Amino acid sequence: MDYKILGKTEIKIPILGQGAWGMGGLFSSQIGISVNSNNIDIEKEKKDIESLKKGIKLGWTFIDTAEAYAEGRSEEIVAEAIKDQRDEVFIATKVWPNNFSYDNIIKSANQSLKRLQIDVIDLYQLHWPSKTVPIKESMKAMEQLVKDGKIKHIGISNFSVEQTKEAQETLTKNEIVSNQVEYSLLNRNIEKEIMPYCEKNNITIIAWSPLARGKIAETDVSSRLKPFSDKYGKTSIQIALNWLISKNNTVAIPKASKIEHLLENDGALNWKLSNKDLELVENEFKID
Ligand code: NAP
């Protein structure tokens, strides 16, 4: 595993982390299947936990979850996976905009700590910008959480450049270390403004849905990556992830409940597309 520095800190985080959206609870398509009294699909959850644990063994020691994922159940699944190895893992979670008032952020962080069964959250992120609560109020709570030792670093997610600047300006003692945004070969919207701004200001980009929710593996996309797959002996997923982590300042958090998916994704590491091929891959998926 390779690492990148998180924001302006001296902390190194793995260039590939494990996304935990969809882990825990039920998939909406599963409603109606046989479950226990808490509406939990135990077999599915066992697989989620196994996959996270296997990821940690492989060096994928950065895990991203959120209070909103499966109503907190995703955080409980992560807790189960990191049990006995908390110190090896960098845990990122998020607070949902409904809870952006000062009091509710403090409450949400405490609830996440409890569900995750940890003493401190390594990276606490505002999940989406709020349309109602002033960012100054939310950031005041985030700084209090740092002061109280409940969270180590402050991150944002889905913030535009303007929203990022505004958020930075309200902080008095801390820096925003990361912005978690959608980024993949199939969605390169951040390249125009957010990515250059974050690079210039040392804010790490955490790419969500880096596999375009699995679409990269589908035939229409993989056939366009076939020349590179043939040349490097890598799958389309491995090519797409390798391209993504070649970007300065950027890490990615693919989600894999299936261990075979995790193992395939792990094959994106420890080799590099040449500069020429990075350019050719980009040209194949041109942005307007
Ligand atoms: P993703 O990582 O792009 O794709 C996940 C999907 O791809 C899953 O269905 C997974 O299947 C499948 N997959 C994984 N590896 C594969 C492989 N090698 N071949 C074929 N299919 C594969 O999408 P995502 O889960 O939306 O995003 C990743 C993480 O980003 C989330 O888990 C979450 O932590 C974060 N996220 C954040 C936000 C935000 O607003 N901040 C929004 C969305 C997501 P299996 O699970 O069945 O293995």
Looking at this protein, list some descriptive labels:
alpha/beta; 11 helices; globular
Structure description:
By secondary structure, the protein is α/β, with parallel strands linked by helices. Helix content is 39%, strand content 16%. Helix 5 links the parallel strand 7 and strand 8. The two termini are 33 Å apart. It binds NADP nicotinamide-adenine-dinucleotide phosphate. The site of NADP nicotinamide-adenine-dinucleotide phosphate (NAP) has 27 residues, from helix 10.
Helix and strand element order: EEEHEHEHEHEHEHEHHHEHH
Rounded Rg? 19 Å
Kindly report the oligomeric state of this protein.
single chain
- The main sheet orders its strands as 3-4-5-6-7-8-9-10
Mean pLDDT: 94
Number of helices: 11
Give the strand content. 15-25%
First-last Cα distance? 33 Å
- Structural class, by secondary structure, is alpha/beta
Q: What is the overall silhouette?
A: globular
Helix content: 25-40%
* Main sheet record: 8 strands, parallel
Bound molecules: NADP nicotinamide-adenine-dinucleotide phosphate
Number of strands: 10
Uncertain runs are 27-35
